[in-house]
Task: inverse folding
């Protein structure tokens, strides 16, 4: 069963653009009829939805797109740009490579040290798991985007998820967080929101992990024996406040795995916590009262070196009425870490969409309005590519983003209400073919 929700416009609501972010599609092959219906939004285009994606081509695209980490600004992006433009041109689209300048400060390393008891470095990297060659040697190191470079030390202090109510609980426990290295597990707030709250309380640095209660062995076998988070698995964090250029976070932030958090938190013996703060690591959690001290070191590009040239790819299929604003379908081409879903699945879906629509165009079909297919660089750093496209003055009629289109069993879409009817109609087409999607009436607004 799928669901559809509408919410804040991720593509600058002030511009009056109808947008849809189509994410977590269970199967790219089965989702293409839906994407085609959404992308065409024009009479006569529905015939294209009878076509089916070619899984061999999708797999070949994903091997290229996910073969190595693709951080924005790395030379690896040149390979991806060349592949995308070549495949779009083969599909019959007019293509362009559009560079733009942006501030993307690459990390040089994040380090966590336990100063007492038993001094030593807490590993902050991912070990090789099973036969996964990508997590051994070539993986991009863990970091938090826009974390400032600094070196600080202080007592380790556990603050649950760093939500406003957690800081109030800390006050009720009469614990002063000033000068501490705060340890938090991921929660409902963004890492930047948590870092800002921590900084306002005088915390020197923030250490973030995902508790096994949320996404680890409490749910099933961990990688490589199952899909759940390995103890060494790290989440590279985007410290972004919204689309566009970003300021640095107020304090250093580093991500660690729950296996790494164990090495700090197991030694915390003072400061009992409420039951709601207890996770699934095999000991009783405590706030800590200074018995564990830690140091955090973060290194990254100087601002003079952080200014980089990024590249969007833009492909165009001309419509019958050139006076109409174009429909734009976009996909992020970069990620903060490796993986097929984050950095590859949306672009692979976009390329297959281009092939199917290109085949229709060769048969004589043309959409009423121009369709633009774009891949963005800098998406993980604040939607920098999409914002550069908007700054060029090419205001679209509507925008559909393809993100994380190959993982999970549930369909999810969110965007402006203006695209609700088009989405509902597209899902009805897919449902008519016996597929998995349906839209509850209450969610079609």
Result:
């Amino acid at each position: 069963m799928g669901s559809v929700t509408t919410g804040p416009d991720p593509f600058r609501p002030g511009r009056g653009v109808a947008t849809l972010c189509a994410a977590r599609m269970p199967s790219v092959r089965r989702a293409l009829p839906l994407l085609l219906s959404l992308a065409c939004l024009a009479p006569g285009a529905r015939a294209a939805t009878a076509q089916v994606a070619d899984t061999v081509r999708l797999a070949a695209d994903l091997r290229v797109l996910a073969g190595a980490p693709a951080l924005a600004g790395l030379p690896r992006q040149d390979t991806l740009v060349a592949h995308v433009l070549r495949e779009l041109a083969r599909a019959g689209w007019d293509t362009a490579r559009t560079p733009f300048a942006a501030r993307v400060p690459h990390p040089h390393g994040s380090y966590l040290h336990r100063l007492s008891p038993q001094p030593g470095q807490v590993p902050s990297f991912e070990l090789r798991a099973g036969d996964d060659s990508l997590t051994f040697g070539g993986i991009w190191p863990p970091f938090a985007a826009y974390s400032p470079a600094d070196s600080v030390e202080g007592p380790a202090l556990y603050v649950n998820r760093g939500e406003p109510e957690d800081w109030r609980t800390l006050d009720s426990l009469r614990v002063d967080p000033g000068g501490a290295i705060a340890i938090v597990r991921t929660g409902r707030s963004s890492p930047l929101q948590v870092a800002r709250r921590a900084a306002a309380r005088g915390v020197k640095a923030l250490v973030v992990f995902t508790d096994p209660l949320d996404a680890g062995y409490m749910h099933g076998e961990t990688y490589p024996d199952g899909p759940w988070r390995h103890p060494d698995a790290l989440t590279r964090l985007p410290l972004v406040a919204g689309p566009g250029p970003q300021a640095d976070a107020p304090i250093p932030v580093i991500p660690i795995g729950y296996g790494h958090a164990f090495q700090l938190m197991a030694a915390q013996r003072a400061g009992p916590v409420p039951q709601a703060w207890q996770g699934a690591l095999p000991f009783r959690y405590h706030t800590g009262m200074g018995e564990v001290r830690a140091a955090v070191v973060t290194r990254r590009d100087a601002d003079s070196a952080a200014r980089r040239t990024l590249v969007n790819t833009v492909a165009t299929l001309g419509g019958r009425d050139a006076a109409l604003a174009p429909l734009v379908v976009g996909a992020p081409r970069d990620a903060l870490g490796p993986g097929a879903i984050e950095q590859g699945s949306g672009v692979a879906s976009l390329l297959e969409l281009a092939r199917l629509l290109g085949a229709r165009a060769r048969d004589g079909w043309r959409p009423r309005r121009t369709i633009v297919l774009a891949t963005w660089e800098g998406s993980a750093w604040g939607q920098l590519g999409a914002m550069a496209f908007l700054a060029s003055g090419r205001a679209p009629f509507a925008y559909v983003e393809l993100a994380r289109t190959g993982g999970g069993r549930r369909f999810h879409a969110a965007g402006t209400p203006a695209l609700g009817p088009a989405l509902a109609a597209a899902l009805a087409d897919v449902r008519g073919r016996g597929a998995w999607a349906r839209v509850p009436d209450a969610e079609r607004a």
